[in-house]
Amino acid sequence: MSSEKQATGIASQLTERIRTKTAVVAVIGLGYVGLPLAVEKAKVGFRVLGVDQNPERAAMANRGENYIGDVKDDELKDIVDKGLLTASTSFDCLKEADVIVICVPTPLTANMDPDISYIENVCGEIVPRLRQGHLVTLESTTYPGTTEEVILPLLEESGLKVGEGFFLSFSPERVDPGNKRYTTKNTSKVVGGVTPACLDVAKTFYEQTILNVVPVSSPSIAEMTKVFENTYRAVNIALINEIMLLCDRMGLDVWEVVDAAGTKPFGIQTFYPGPGVGGHCIPIDPFYLTWRARQFDFHTRFIELAGEVNIQATYHVIDVISRALNKAGKCINGAKILVLGVAYKKDISDVRESPALKVIDLLKKEHADLSFHDPYVSELKAVEPYDWTMDGVELTAERLQEADCVVIATDHSSFDYEWVVDNSKLVVDTRNATKNVKNNREKIVKI
């Protein structure tokens, strides 16, 4: 049998196993991306093997104990009870799998360069376990070229050839924590394969649980698509943050400007200012693109400027707090400041890259007497680049009354903002959360 016919046969067999749900799926990394993906695959009948280097997380998954907000408790418990999802810290289970999905972190180094060491380390674990007929698909956000220039050479050290012995694709995650409308299932999925056979197999795999799969011509196109999506948001947020800084200088209400502009039925998409950008994607992905661009002797000045403006927005919050306290006859040094909300956006517990953490850090450096309350976050552990920890406090009328300034850093829906303002001396609102508060508006200072 020719190698071409053999490859076609291998692809056909794997595709059939995927369509009949007899294929075994391994998900490496059971975090914000991996666990929802694992649950969706198990719900339709796939047996899913989770791999996570955090023993506590693996143990919780095996007990059916949910730790990700976008996963439903009862769905996780059900698939675990049925034996459709098991988790381990060992990579040996990859030998049983037909499909391997990589969902590991891709942070930045201290110099703001891409850190793909997690991906490389995982590939090192896959290689000795890679067998004929495996589909390996990467979902971790990365720079264009990673799949074909980094992962492919590593996997081919196994002696197998891509598109014939194994199949390789990139399909970027599009998780939006806390989004009740768009979930893993109904969010369109972009996928690019190294070869046509790789694309066909990967597309079939994702079609089993996702309503709309969008094939593209290569992994690099899919990788660029992902970083472009989040760079688009970063740049537009930077634009409105710069308008915010200008409106502050001019004495204008930027929130009223944005709402008025948003009434135009064409030619504009509404973005809101804030204390900075947060989450794993928007503060990080643009730097993956700027780093990659430099390798092509190209400087993404527009994107880099957006990053600078969004950082400046956080420092602006400190300026507003300082001015508001000064007007009240106080200074930041020694002032009792209560921060409401530390998650990077409302109604979730995710604090990754949250601008609230930077605000707290800057206030600490000004020697403010700080406390925080977040209904979703009970404590802040020391995370890079911060070396401090804080326990949350109970939100009471007495605590609000004692504070020299209450800073709304995250606009959780559960906060009673009318009550907060009533019981506070001064409120600095970074999210326009007090928009509908009717009484005591003289206490409110918006960024």
Question: What do these coordinates show?
Answer:
By secondary structure, this protein is α/β, with parallel strands linked by helices. Helix content is 40%, strand content 13%. The protein has helices spanning 3-19, 34-43, 55-63, 73-81, 117-126, 146-155, 196-207, 219-250, 254-261, 285-294, 301-327, 355-365, 397-402, 417-422; strands at 24-28, 47-51, 85-88, 99-102, 135-138, 167-170, 189-193, 213-216, 336-340, 369-373, 379-380, 390-391, 405-408, 427-429, 444-446. It is elongated, with a radius of gyration of 24 Å.
CATH C-level label of the largest domain: Alpha Beta
SSE class: alpha/beta
Secondary-structure arrangement, i.e. CATH architecture of the largest domain: 3-Layer(aba) Sandwich
What is the number of E strands? 15
CATH domain fold name of the largest domain:
Rossmann fold
What is the spatial order of strands in the main beta sheet? 3-2-1-4-5-6-7-8
> What is the H/E string?
HEHEHHEEHEHEEHEHHHHEHEEEHEHEE
Compute the number of structural domains.
2
Measured distance between first and last alpha carbons:
70 Å
Cα-atom radius of gyration: 24 Å
Low-confidence parts: none
What fraction of residues sit in β-strands? Answer: 5-15%
Biggest sheet record: 8 strands, mixed
Q: Average pLDDT, to the nearest integer?
A: 94
- Please work out how many helical segments DSSP would assign: 14
CATH superfamily of the largest domain: NAD(P)-binding Rossmann-like Domain
Percent helix: 25-40%
Shape: elongated
